[in-house]
Amino acid sequence: MYVPFVVTAVLSLLGPRLARRLPPRPAAWALACAALVTAIGWAGALALLAFTGVAQVPQVAAEGRWSVAVLRAEDPVYRIVAAASTLVLLVGVVSLVVAAVRQVRHLVRARRECAHLPGDTELAVVDEDVPLAFALPGAPGRIVVSRGMLRCLGDDEREALLAHERAHLRGRHHLFHSVWRLTAALNPLLRPLTVAGGFVLERWADEEAAERVGDRRVVAHAVGRAALASAGTPRPVALAVTGGAVPQRVRALLAPPPARRSLPLVTGGLLLAVCCASLANAASDSDHMLDSAQRAQCAVHLRADGSAMKHRHPSGPCCAGRERQEREEHRP
């Protein structure tokens, strides 16, 4: 039961470091899969631990028809651990619901803003002196750039900026953000993956822009100038060219493209497999424990019913003869 907690802690510590050494696209998918699997494992393990305590409540045991005494004898979980797991699980579920509502509102607001932007093309240029550039997810999404931002960049850098924002829309990066935010709401230990995921998505868009433009240095200059121009300006959404750790992004663009590495992905996959296998094993053990408690309770009921039948219809040769005599006397 406790293995998913250990796997979650290990991936929360090592995941962000390993993701920065991988190509950004597979790193983003790896972080998303790690967040989903560990969040499910976290919630499942908490639910199993909580159930060991809830199942021993007499009213619950009566409804489920199992023996509380057998559960207490076979259950190795302390009551304080079960109670704490119940509390943590309830808090996590409430936090998940709140985060889900916020994400839905954010997406609805983004679509409304897309509908109210001027023009009907992918690019919407707003008449603002404040340097702004970001992508709004929608159906389809829109790229919003202010005239102030366009004045800060050259022609090649403008092309790089637009290619960066198109990569956000094409890759549906807002869905990755939603996954990380929801899983972090359920399990606070996954918050480092959310921060690392935001950086990886910006790097993903940077690399696609570099392939589109054909010059990594141009993209680096565009990212740096856009960040300097918008310094002190609040960023309205996450999918912005100025998002993430800009110095690290510029440094990565000035270096050669990241090499593909399979060892971190294999290691992470093995950890996730261990998490799933341990959770399945714990669920199977809990099911066997409940089966034993139900069989014990069934045996108690059978013994009680047998005693009642014997009391109503006593057995033995004398009783049988007496019953036969009474039937003959009442026969017409």
What does this protein look like?
This protein is mainly alpha-helical and 332 residues long. It is built from 13 helices and three strands. It has a three-stranded mixed beta sheet. The protein is elongated.
Brief rundown of the structure:
With 332 residues, this protein is mainly alpha-helical. It has 13 helices and 3 strands.
Residues in β-strands, percent:
under 5%
Low-pLDDT residue intervals, each spanning 5 or more residues: 313-332
Q: With helices defined by DSSP (H or I, 4 residues minimum), what is the helix count?
A: 13
Distance between the termini: 72 Å
Shape descriptor: elongated
**Topology as a string of helices (H) and strands (E):** HHHHHEEEHHHHHHHH
Outline the biggest β-sheet. 3 strands, mixed
User: Could you give the order of strands across the largest sheet?
Assistant: 1-3-2
Structural class designation: mainly alpha
User: How large is the radius of gyration?
Assistant: 31 Å
| Helicity, as a percent range | over 70%
Mean pLDDT across residues: 82
Count of strand segments:
3
